[in-house]
Amino acid sequence: MEKKYTGLLYIAPWLVGLIIFTIYPFIASFILSFTDYKIIYQPQFIGFSNYIKMFHDQLFWTSMFASFKYVVLTVPLKLIFALFIAMVLNFKLKGINFYRTAYYVPSILGGNVAVAVLWRFLFANNGLINQFLGIFGINPVPWFSSEYPALFTISALRIWEFGSAMVIFLAGLKDIPQELYEAAAVDGATPIRSFFKITIPLLTPIIFFNLVMQIIQAFQEFNGPYLITGGGPLYKTYLFPLLIYDNAFKYFNMGYASALSWVLFIIIMIFTALVFRSSRYWVFYSDSDEGEVK
Amino acid sequence: MKRAITLMVSLIFFLTIILAGCGTSKQESSNNVQTQETQKQITLRFSWWGDDTRHQATLEAIKLFEQKYPNIKIKAEYAGWDGYLDKQTTQIAGGTAADIMQINWNWLPIFSKDGNGFYDLNKLSKELGLEENYTKNILQLGTVNGKLNGIPVALTGRVIYYNKTVYDKFGVSTFPTTWNDLINIAKKFDKGYYPMILGDYDAWLLSMTYAIQKTGKPFIDNNGKLAFDENDIKIALDFYKKLIDNKVTPTIATIANEGGNGNAPIEQLPSFIDGKFAGLFQWTSAVKKDATPLKEKNMELALGGIPMDSDSKTSGAILKPSMLFAINKDCKYPKEAATFLNFILNDPEGVKAMGLNRGIPVSKSAVDTLQKAGLISGLEYDGLKFLLDHPSVPISPYLEDPKLQDVYRQTIDQISYGKVTVDEAAKYMYDNVQKVLSEITK
């Protein structure tokens, strides 16, 4: 009897945190999403009005569109970049551990406000990037003040934080048996051919995992656009989480903001489910008989 | 073991109670105050936001007050501006707000739509020295529904300040007094130099000022209804288009390019510090921080005022309380709270300690005291004096509603980026301001 609860006691710090910071807000936001809640007045139950309101809210569609564009731009680039760096770091170079650490650093700093501010300076009109381009006689690019590069500038910040995806790729690469490459080389396969026929197929479970994680993260991106562009110019970088934030903490429409959060949650769920569904067609597990190494 | 479980369960319970809302804790804490303190000893909580110099000055004033009134203790609760409204909102909602609060003017419609959100200070007129120190017009600014919700501490308003050094360089010796002159001087400026910088929000406020001058109407009336019609808005937006076309102000893209337009404050923009953006439309209370970096570069910021054409119906001046002091509607000791407010607002001893950290005070006796001490002068005072000498139609506290601000900014951005014609922008703005106003005044 006592033993049963001892374990519970050990995980109590985590459990308390989970209840207070995850489960309670989770349930509360669901209930609040059906109310009109301005914080200083008691919440009023208004049924599905908040969800209906979204369809008429122009900003809802604008920010949704911006978020999708952001995800489509960021996720593949980041995965390719992370994989590329992981491949490079997989070579047996001198001092390789130092480089592995160094390339991981941006991910630790990534969510940091200071880095977003740094980004603002780097990409400013007379910032380092434009000065560098100036050496080659390229005119200054309005990185975040004109409509088109703005979203890319925000994406670049995310892509630069490739560290966690890279580390996972690196672990995956190390798991690929060396004999396969040797056998392929004996059969006359070029390195490029082995990359597409050995590395990629054997790495698909890792790609799958990273893809799911990155999609979830990208949909939730807030710091970058909030601090660098403030959602501008002309709402081109006004990602969905910014809409939630503005409604919650700028306009104090907590009910509507809760409803928006749930919509975001559902969208992420759908995409995750889609990726999981599609995975049976492109993910190969080398130790199962379902998929096979082609 | 059992004790540990009990402890854990009670811990979770305790935390849940805190989360579930602090609705009851207000009463508990004031009960504590009553039982703990000896008979006449009273503790009042006073909350404000500000920077460190304001904190120190206020704490000093509190110390002097406690020496003068040993039976009243003031518990100071202070923080920076960031996130202050969130905190204040939670406290008011939970009934745990301080007894005496420093509040922002546009919070009145948020917290006290019917005038019952704060203590009616008219009831404490004598203790607060209202009649001797404040004009009716000033008190009107803190009144909702006939109830005095807050005493304006200081006033602030928007005027143009200009970089005199740069203007002189281009042969402009005084700031233009008419709008046409303002547009004409832009031609004298070298490429890359602009007579002023207007971010999207500043741009709207200046254009609105122009349209108020032309029409003589307020933008939003006293009842929170839009008083401008679509055509009046068009007058304002046409004017803004003219300003960017004639290079009186850089486009929003140019400003954003420097990291500005709402993200970095003007005083941090390289072009402003270098004198290329040679003027700004700023709150009088905030001008100091713009003047400082220029001074370091041996440039002088001077008052430009607000240009006016001969056919102007009014000055269009935007003047509002920069902040107010209010008393909690559930305060147990309103008289004592009023005594404290009187001390820091009107009593020479308190006024001197408070200094100019909340702007130039409106209280007559405070102004007297500070003038005698030779403390009132400079850009802020010049700007305020200009605004007080050029009265205009009343400004609505709804003007600065965050959602409306987004509408203004969006409209100005669309024009500046050349996405819409002025007619389309005027229609967009008219429709959306109506929509937002009907939502927030509901």
Explain the overall architecture.
The complex is a heterodimer of chains A (294) and B (442). Chain A is an all-alpha fold and 294 residues long. Helices cover 73% and strands 1% of the residues of chain A. Chain A contains 14 helices and two strands; from the N terminus they run ααββαααααααααααα. In chain A, strands 1-2 form a two-stranded antiparallel ribbon. In chain A, strand 1 (35-36) and strand 2 form a beta hairpin. Chain B is of the alpha+beta class. In chain B, the strands form two sheets. In chain B, strands 1, 2, 3, 6, 7, 8 and 9 form a seven-stranded mixed β-sheet that branches. In chain B, strands 4-5 form a two-stranded antiparallel ribbon. The longest helix of chain B has 19 residues, at 422-440. Chain B starts with a helix and ends with a helix. At the A-B interface, helix 1, helix 2 and helix 13 of A face helix 1, helix 4, helix 13 and helix 20 of B.
User: What kind of assembly state do the chains in view correspond to?
Assistant: heterodimer
Helix content of chain B: 40-55%
Percentage of β-strand residues of chain A: under 5%
The main β sheet of chain A shows up as: 2 strands, antiparallel
Shape of chain A: globular
Summarize the amount of helix of chain A as a percent range.
over 70%
* String of helices and strands of chain B: HHEHEHEHHHHEEEHHHHHHEHEEHHHHHH
**How much strand content do the residues of chain B show?**
5-15%
Number of helices of chain A: 14
Give the biggest beta sheet of chain B: 7 strands, mixed
* Sequence of strands across the biggest β-sheet of chain A: 1-2
From the alpha carbons, calculate the radius of gyration of chain A and give it in angstroms. 23 Å
Secondary structure category of chain A: mainly alpha
Alpha plus pi helix count of chain B: 21
Unreliable segments of chain B (pLDDT under 50, ≥5 consecutive)? 16-38
